[in-house]
Amino acid sequence: MAAKPLPPKGTRDFSPVEMAKRNYIFQTIRDVFCLFGFQQIETPAMEMLSTLMGKYGEEGDKLLFKVQNSGDYFKGLTDEELLSRDAAKLASKFCEKGLRYDLTVPFARYVVTHRDEIVFPFKRFQIQPVWRADRPQKGRYREFYQCDADVIGSTSLMNEAELMRIIHEVFKRFGIRVCIKINNRKILSGIAEYIGEAARIIDITVAIDKLDKIGLDGVNQELADKGVSPEAIEKLQPIINLSGSNAQKMRTLRTTLKSSSIGLAGIDELHELLGYYQLEDAEVDLTLARGLNYYTGTIIEVKALDVEIGSITGGGRYDNLTGIFGMPNVSGVGISFGADRIFDVLNQLDLYPSELAFGTRVLFLNYDKEDGIYCSLLLTKLRSYGISVEMYPDVAGNSKKQNQQLNYAKAKGIPYIVYIDRKGMPDPKYRLKREWKMTLYHWPTGKRKTMHKEELITYLQRKHQKGRI
Amino acid sequence: MAAKPLPPKGTRDFSPVEMAKRNYIFQTIRDVFCLFGFQQIETPAMEMLSTLMGKYGEEGDKLLFKVQNSGDYFKGLTDEELLSRDAAKLASKFCEKGLRYDLTVPFARYVVTHRDEIVFPFKRFQIQPVWRADRPQKGRYREFYQCDADVIGSTSLMNEAELMRIIHEVFKRFGIRVCIKINNRKILSGIAEYIGEAARIIDITVAIDKLDKIGLDGVNQELADKGVSPEAIEKLQPIINLSGSNAQKMRTLRTTLKSSSIGLAGIDELHELLGYYQLEDAEVDLTLARGLNYYTGTIIEVKALDVEIGSITGGGRYDNLTGIFGMPNVSGVGISFGADRIFDVLNQLDLYPSELAFGTRVLFLNYDKEDGIYCSLLLTKLRSYGISVEMYPDVAGNSKKQNQQLNYAKAKGIPYIVYIDRKGMPDPKYRLKREWKMTLYHWPTGKRKTMHKEELITYLQRKHQKGRI
Fold first, then answer.
1. Which of A36, A117, A275, B188 is most buried by its number of CB atoms within 10 A?
2. CB contact set of B407 (below 8 Å; sequence gap of 6+)
3. Which residue stretches of chain A have pLDDT < 70?
4. How far, in Å, CA of B184 to CA of B182, rounded?
5. B331 and B154 in contact (C-beta within 8 Å)?
């Protein structure tokens, strides 16, 4: 036989068991989004490259999957252009569409496209795959799902608080203990001002962001390498090392940054946000600086307490997302759940609900050509009560094939099997057995229930109503 | 402002209202698939072009969306090759991946990739988008969802009957009256033999397939144009015009095709299938010939009785799907629901359930800066009962902004609004009102309920339990 065909590098198939787990994750997140009044939208997998290019930096442009134009994509190209072999430049001639890289830019495009239909503030969520031509590696895929919720068209910090409560509720439902870290871009600006390095804010926050990974000495070294003065680094130390309760941290900061109006504005925002949020799992963390080029106010990041895995959810406020499409001055704030990492955490902590049943509850064995005709209406009846049942489609002509049917039940995790005892025809008896009580390859000799058709229906229906099947 | 950015031609955004309808369609189909013991899988949007090419005919190859290789996609190409401007040939150099064109070929690839993990018969379903570079036109899109269920690794006709019962159940749940038309490729072969034109079976069935569109004369003309002899056309007439009950049709056919062993085998299969199926909405239709190059046994097609829209679901048996990937002799049978057409039919017949509620049930108005802090825990409490509630995030500083909040409730279809009467602080009263009883732009003067916090919680919880909110 030829080599097995595989899906493209960095992409994955999802088996029935994986799908059951993934559906549980998506459904939980979706339920919570809806509970908070967010509405679902979907956008196409492909966007115009003019929509995508230039939104993710130069590196991002390279990581876009570009889709070749249909028909004659050479049209209008001179020999010189072709022979230049300029891959990046010619890509924009060969391709006018690309696969979406995230859900945020398509959402911004959606808002501008549908601006006349949307009533703001618009609270939308979106759960769809995105594609990135990253080098595949453990835990990093070229196709993966994002689960985003954003509020656009409102500057109120209540939105941040609501998004944090969504995070709290989602992880409560998953049973994952988390810490929700928060910071504010304006405080970072204030700090840069305070240490006299306002122009180097990007370098400073990029360095601070690595505290977890490279430690305090590493951060200080990187700051020095970037040309931050020794005095500034010295002044920065108490801020990096800031500890205590959220209230204590903010009191200290308010004193330290008293001469920076932007810093004080950031502290005020953080204070107001915590006033709305009122739950214990939020922690002010000044070393949090993700996506700084992008966020303009609150920054949010979630860490699992019991697993070392990095951020499992993140987000923040951005002040001019739709400006790139000619609709300025619309403020937004959003979060994104990392479905793949949550999948891993739930696996590691073994937190999937045990009743994550995703299949057939009863298998009817098929040992005689007439069984299929005979059971047709019985299967329909049981299904009408919501019980997922099936009959093995092929008749077992010998004992090997009979074992195949038991094997099928075991492999699919079907808890009950029914054998039709045709001796009593036209009123046969039904033998019902829990699959796990059987020895595979031997029809069970242990205790089993033998019933007439109506008894079987009533019995299974009652079990189903009680959730015991 | 610049021109509105749009999604690519032939693709669509889905608004919250459309998503609610689409989710209802997908969830209904998914529920029924699960009830019948089918298990969900997903495959990546991209497949290797080596997996996709040559599976859909020459025309299909052209309609594949091809994804450009990352990095230097010119590598190894000579100047001559480049300057040949051979779009099709160079596409295979520039691109090694493409977007899936349907769910069937990726499924076949999945079965072969995972052959060692799968216990056969494998009953899988898959609900994912597919992409085709077709010329966009009304009702035809470049991105659309398919909802497929297939059984692979079983030759039993009970599978066909189960798939037909799935169709029956799905459309029963939708409230769409349908006719399930069935035929068998072997009968078509038998007919071609009987009229002495066995070699022209493709031409004959393609022509017969158009009976609905071009009428009997048109079909006969096309047959003549294809070189089918007048005698053969003459012999075909009683078969095209065959009428009566399924049993009558099969009796007549059995006599007519008595000398064709393949024809008789087809009639036997149809007879056995109807024995398993036992419902009234199946109709033997010899003019049904869809996807003939592909199907080898049963052919299924579903028409809505009350809307002119063509086929809304179809499928059939194929005997060697995985053979193209080096795994021969695996028989399969499958169906595919056309989600876009079902969407249109449900719209036309106005069959969406009225309780297709997809959003917030109660909006808390925000008329004072303290309201947000004050209501934080109240919102959490109501959500803990499963009631979807939200507070308008921005404080209304004047009456215009107050009207904006009522407008928001109306636009989102939120049935209840709550106003916090702060006069009684710290124990304010809550005024609850059904939104549709208000005149917009005026706070309602009509009847309303005024309650303390605990009363409000109890009142809404009871309403919610009774499903009246």
1. B188
2. A119, B440
3. 1-2, 291-293, 357-358, 436-447
4. 7
5. yes
Q: How many CA atoms lie within 13 A of A356 on its CB side?
A: 19
By C-alpha distance, which of A37, A446, A111 is closest to B359?
A: A37
> Check: CATH 3.30.2390.10 for A359-465?
no
Q: How far apart are CA B437 and CA B417, in angstroms?
A: 11
As a whole number, mean pLDDT of residues B24-52 equals 97
Tokens linked to A114? 């549908």
**ipTM score over 0.90, yes or no:** yes
Q: What is the pLDDT of residues B138-197, one digit of tens each?
A: 878 999 999 999 999 999 999 999 999 999 999 999 999 999 999 999 999 999 999 998
DSSP B243: -
As its CATH architecture, domain B16-349 has: 2-Layer Sandwich (3.30)
Q: What angle (nearest 5°) sits at the alpha carbon of residue B300, between those of residues B298 and B305?
A: 155
Contact list, A159 vs chain B (CB under 8 Å): 393
CA A366/CA B323 separation, integer angstroms: 28
Place of tokens 């196409």: A44
User: CB within 8 A of B3, min separation 6: which ones?
Assistant: none
Report, in angstroms and rounded to the nearest whole number, the Rg of chain B calculated over CA atoms.
29
Query: Distance between CA atoms of A300 and A285, rounded to whole angstroms?
Result: 10
CA-CA-CA-CA torsion for B85, B87, B90, B95, nearest 10 degrees?
140
- Tell me which chain A residues have a C-beta less than 8 angstroms from the C-beta of B110: 13
Contact: A393, B327; criterion CB under 8 Å? no
Residue type, B396: A
**SS3 sequence, A335-383?**
EEEEHHHHHHHHHHCCCCCCCCCCCCCEEECCCCCCHHHHHHHHHHHHH
Classify burial at B436, counting beta carbons within 10 Å of its beta carbon; exposed 0-12, middle 13-18, buried 19 or more: exposed
Look at residues B189, B195, B243, B225 and name the one whose alpha carbon lies nearest to residue B217.
B225
CA dist., res. B159 & res. A73, Å (int): 45
In whole angstroms, give the CA distance from residue A299 to residue A160: 9
Does residue B84 carry a pLDDT above 50?
yes
Name which of A12, A20, A360 is nearest B44 (Cβ-Cβ).
A12
- For residue A2, what is the nearest residue in chain B, using CA coordinates? B326
> First-to-last CA distance in chain B?
42
Residue A365 phi, psi dihedral angles, 5° rounding: -75, 150
Q: Which of B44, B128, B102, B40 is nearest to A22 (CA)?
A: B40
Largest CA distance in chain A: 96
How close B71 gets to chain A, by Cα (Å)? 7
User: Burial letters for A383-415: b for 16+ Cβ neighbours within 10 Å, e otherwise?
Assistant: beeebbbbbbbbbbeeeeebebbbebbbebebb
Res B310: pLDDT:
83
Predicted confidence at residue A438, as pLDDT, reads 54
> In chain B, which residues have their Cβ closer than 8 Å to the Cβ of A278?
373, 376-377
Provide the residue ranges of all domains of chain A, joining segments of one domain with +. Answer: 16-349, 359-465
Q: Report DSSP letters for B34-54, one per residue.
A: HHTT-EE-B--SEEEHHHHTT
Listed in sequence order, the residues at least 6 apart from B267 whose beta carbon sits closer than 8 Å to its beta carbon are B184, B187, B190, B250, B253, B254, B257
One-letter identity of residue A433: K
Distance in Å, alpha carbon of A70 to nearest chain B alpha carbon: 7
What is the band of B441 on the pLDDT scale with cuts at 50, 70, 90? Answer: very low
**Rounded to two decimals, what is the model's pTM?**
0.93
pLDDT band at B313 (very low <50, low <70, confident <90, very high): very high
